[in-house]
Amino acid sequence: MQSPQTRSEPSPFAPAVDTCSIAGMGYFLPPDTVTNHQLALTVETSDEWIIERTGIHQRHRIAQDEATSDIAHRAAVAALVDAGVSPRDLDLILLATATPDTPVPSTACYLQARLDCPGVPSMDLGAGCSGFGYGLHMALAAVRSGMHRRVLVVGADALTRVTNYGDRQSCILFGDGAGAAVVSEGGFLEVLYSSIGADGRGANLIRIQAGGSRMPASADSVAASMHTLELKGREVFKVAVRQMSECIRDAAAALGMAPSDFDLVIPHQANARIVEAVGSQLGVHADNLVIDISQTGNTAAASIPIALGRAREHGRLKPGQLVAVVGFGAGMAWACQVLRVHEK
Ligand SMILES: CC(C)(COP(=O)(O)OP(=O)(O)OC[C@H]1O[C@@H](n2cnc3c(N)ncnc32)[C@H](O)[C@@H]1OP(=O)(O)O)[C@@H](O)C(=O)NCCC(=O)NCCS
To answer: At the N or C end, where does the chain have fewer CB atoms within 10 A?
Structure first.
């Protein structure tokens, strides 16, 4: 093993900064897809039901020989190129995932090795589908305090690896993907507001019961499919709509505006009906609401950076606009940011 790189500027002593932005973004969706028709071959469901109840037509799936760090790497490279930053310019890597390559070591360390930037502190964080927003929040704290200067935040999940393909309620929802952002002092998406929260009383609404210290892997736990994700879909639906709406209301109030004043609102892409319900509760016009789930399904921690990246590709991020993003998921945990778009 080579010795860690020596960085010329010891980041803990850098000066605090007033503004913090996303300087570059990228996302990756693996090429293999699973259609509703394919799922209908294994469980009692139909293309029509899935489209009507979720808005999903297909989802992406990682290759047999890939893991979360592989798709995280593709998204990270795209974000670094977009920011014009080399991996060795980073001084922190935060990788949000619920589907690590292995329990030990962290997936962030596999990613760091792939990026070839030894010495850069790297860690995973777990906040379910709101993981990217949690990572962004912590990156802001790190950069604004002056403790770190350039942070790579990645949301990456391969939920198809932990999906129970015998459960028609959940197997239709999830797809794989990764999204990444480079957070630093200057950039094109200035973060004006950031907030995170959680309520552990809802911990059993979305969970994987086995494979941890509570219930280590055993032949029985595997036979009972307890290493796969289970959810109480109807209950999650209601809490997701309520909590994401409240987050956007709070963000708008903090900035002295109304939710309908945001130029774009991007909720976690869990289900098109959840996103629509958030939009209607807040009085957000359909043109200002991002519903982008039909080709991806719910990509968990990658959902927000993928939706944001695709909105940008579609020309929906215009200089001067205010964009609100809100994540929500297992925990229950949520994260909300407001971004001001600048010229890039
Ligand atoms: C799971 C979800 C799609 C189900 O949609 P829904 O409209 O709430 O449907 P319901 O759960 O009320 O079920 C309605 C009926 O459809 C059935 N159903 C569920 N999945 C089905 C499927 N894939 N195909 C056909 N029928 C299905 C149910 O069994 C139920 O039948 P019943 O009335 O005979 O009992 C929706 O609740 C959801 O998206 N929830 C949030 C998902 C989530 O937790 N995401 C992860 C974190 S954000």
So the answer is: N
